[in-house]
């Protein structure tokens, strides 16, 4: 059996095709880089640009449209912050050994001149030294305050153990959730 070997040599058709493809690719690259092959799109810039105030009534110096009515809330639509702790203050933080009772005087002032509010209050007597976030006692109460009025009450918490000893404490209003009535 004879073995056949292909001896294409340098002048074969396959080598010619490769050379032609490489030459074409090189020419396309040079033409593209040089800007000859693909032209850039032309952009037309208008010579007249209409003024923003010409037809719409919009003035860039006054961004409020003149043809729309403005809205201002009426006194009955007064907004409020449901966290009413800024309306509350406390004084006379005390503990009575004989009564084994914490007391704290709480005052609530309703800043609204039109609405009554219900305040859902929480007062804590907290451990002060070391201040570790633990509470000795909690007092909760709801109270209604009329428009512009101030209501004052005394929050109380009685300790259940008979002997307390020496301790440090603070009084804190931890909640004053405010709801319109």
Description of the molecule:
The chain is mainly beta and 181 residues long. 12% of the residues lie in helices and 34% in strands. The protein is built from 1 helix and 6 strands, in the order H-E-E-E-E-E-E. The strands form 2 sheets. It has a 3-stranded antiparallel beta sheet with strand order 1-2-5, with no helix packed on it. It has a 3-stranded antiparallel beta sheet with strand order 4-3-6, with no helix packed on it. It is elongated, with a radius of gyration of 43 Å. It starts with 12 loop residues before the first helix and ends with a strand.
Entry summary:
The chain has 181 residues and is mainly beta. The chain has one helix and six strands; from the N terminus they run H-E-E-E-E-E-E.
Helix content: 10-25%
Give the strand tally.
6
Q: What is the spatial order of strands in the main beta sheet?
A: 1-2-5
For the termini, the CA-CA separation is 111 Å
Q: What is the gyration radius calculated from CA atoms?
A: 43 Å
């Amino acid at each position: 059996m004879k073995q056949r070997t292909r001896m294409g040599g340098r002048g074969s058709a396959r080598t010619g095709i490769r050379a032609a493809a490489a030459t074409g690719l090189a020419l396309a690259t040079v033409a593209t880089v040089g800007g000859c092959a693909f032209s850039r799109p032309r952009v037309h810039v208008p010579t007249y640009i209409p003024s923003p105030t010409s037809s719409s009534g919009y003035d860039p110096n006054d961004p409020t449209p003149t043809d729309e009515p403005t809205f201002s809330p009426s006194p009955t639509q007064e907004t409020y912050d449901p966290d009413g702790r800024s309306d509350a203050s406390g004084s006379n933080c005390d503990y009575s050994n004989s009564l084994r009772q914490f007391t704290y005087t709480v005052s609530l002032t309703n800043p609204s001149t039109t609405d009554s509010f219900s305040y859902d209050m929480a007062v804590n007597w907290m451990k002060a030294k070391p201040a570790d976030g633990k509470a000795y006692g909690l007092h909760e109460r709801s109270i209604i305050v009329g428009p512009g009025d101030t209501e004052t009450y005394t929050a109380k918490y009685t300790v259940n153990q008979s002997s307390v000893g020496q301790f440090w404490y603070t009084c804190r209003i931890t909640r004053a959730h405010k709801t319109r009535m």
